[in-house]
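Q: Could you write out the predicted structure for this multi-component system? I'm mainly interested in how the pieces pack against one another.
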Amino acid sequence: MPRGVMQSVEDCQIAILGAGLIGASWAALFVHHGASVRVWDPSAEALQDLEGRMAGPLAQLCDLSSGAAATGRVSQCNALEEAIADADLIQENAPENVALKHELYARVEPLLKPGAILASSTSALTWSELAPGLAQPDCLITAHPFNPPHLVPLVEIYGRDAARLERAEAIYSAAGRVPVRLKKDATGHIANRLASALWREAVHMVAEDIADVAAIDAALVHGPGLRWSTIGAHLAYHLGGGDAGMAGYLAHLGPSQERRWATLGNPTLTPELCAALVDGVLTEAYGRDIKTLERQRDDALIAALKARK
Amino acid sequence: MPRGVMQSVEDCQIAILGAGLIGASWAALFVHHGASVRVWDPSAEALQDLEGRMAGPLAQLCDLSSGAAATGRVSQCNALEEAIADADLIQENAPENVALKHELYARVEPLLKPGAILASSTSALTWSELAPGLAQPDCLITAHPFNPPHLVPLVEIYGRDAARLERAEAIYSAAGRVPVRLKKDATGHIANRLASALWREAVHMVAEDIADVAAIDAALVHGPGLRWSTIGAHLAYHLGGGDAGMAGYLAHLGPSQERRWATLGNPTLTPELCAALVDGVLTEAYGRDIKTLERQRDDALIAALKARK
């Protein structure tokens, strides 16, 4: 995947715009890997809380790398100019609002050094929606992390300037990420389209009372989820075709997949269905609050990532 | 999940009908966990190859349990009567053909001891399609493993007799499986419905040239697949709602999920699209043959399962 040759991000100047959860997670990741990171946020309060928000992610990254502490440094900037000056990569984590991001880009663009990469963490918006906010949209890429960004390796990338895309991939790879490139701009990039398609059927099964919320989640975690953490869906069907691989699979089971697709659901989130989903997850959570569930997810992610090494 | 109290399967007599890959995987699993296993297959040749087919799974199970060797025993039966006599659980792995399974059930039923469980590994068929093959369908459950059955813990269960369902869950749990119960008979059970829904969108993205086959697989393995190996889709959206959990998620992002669902694809497996899928997986496989890919998947599964302990 990585097309660049960068071995570390130690010589990189990174700017993080937005000191919320996603911004703090990015900051921790880059600092852990040795980069010089400057964080800006329009809210002085958010900026003050940055250290606290980075502490958990930094401890987890230290755990993941067998106790190796962060080698980079982070500073908080009250002025946007200060954060962006000399930055090679500017990771933007502003709220998911086109007008607001366009306003921010109008302030950012004049401050960019030549060749700088303006990378948007946007989940819901596309490159094509964001590009009109810039006079020279070549500097813009979308670089969507999967939550939590400092643990889940995926970064989905789209842009128009080949040189910047290669450099961005090299930087993310050097920070232990797995950059994956889209060929076309698409709402939801790749991963959230897959997640949305899967969840639609998971919701449908609740609506049809085929299984409980907790049973559906257990089936995923102990079945396809586990397998998809080791092998992709396409390659899994390639193995499903025996010696003839994907060609054999499609010849023998393609028609039955098309029939299955025709039976999948298309639920509407009615008040009754929403109530069933809420009841179901509360039963599954079994008294565990959000913080506890997040910690358990992160512990499991760290164990799974260690197993990959 | 496990509702029974069985701590081991050492006192269980297990019959495996069908000595192919799935049957051999089940046999290895139960033998590893200490059960007495009798395997029958209508083909003497398949029966002769059983030991060879069990060798790999037995070695992997030994590896998974830190070197502990199998404590059960296996015997090959040329007569169906011999395999089924005294069996508590009969795991049926016949080809996915209703008429053929009905014929087999007509031979099996008179041989069952009182309370015995006839469990079908069927992937494509439902309990309702199989039940007419029996005079007393109460003895039948569907118990669908996820490939490869000796490694992936999920077993999806449906049946009508509460006592047999509980005993089956206790037996599978004692063999290290995670039984998940369906409330209603459904084609594809839970996991293959989820997998089919996800793959439809993965195929759609290839059809629309949004990303390469290998990129889509990489996004899954390093993004949602990894996360779904630690937390289910429903619970993940519960965390996505912040302190308000699923209720907050649905209130704020339910409408945008419905809009996303409306943009998901519904591809047709045309010859051109099939060719693109075959080309794509071959590029992703990068010269690795099916055997090599299977071994790499299994190694990764074993590492992931060890990390769960």
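A: Regarding packing and overall arrangement: The first strand of chain B starts at residue 13 and ends at 17.
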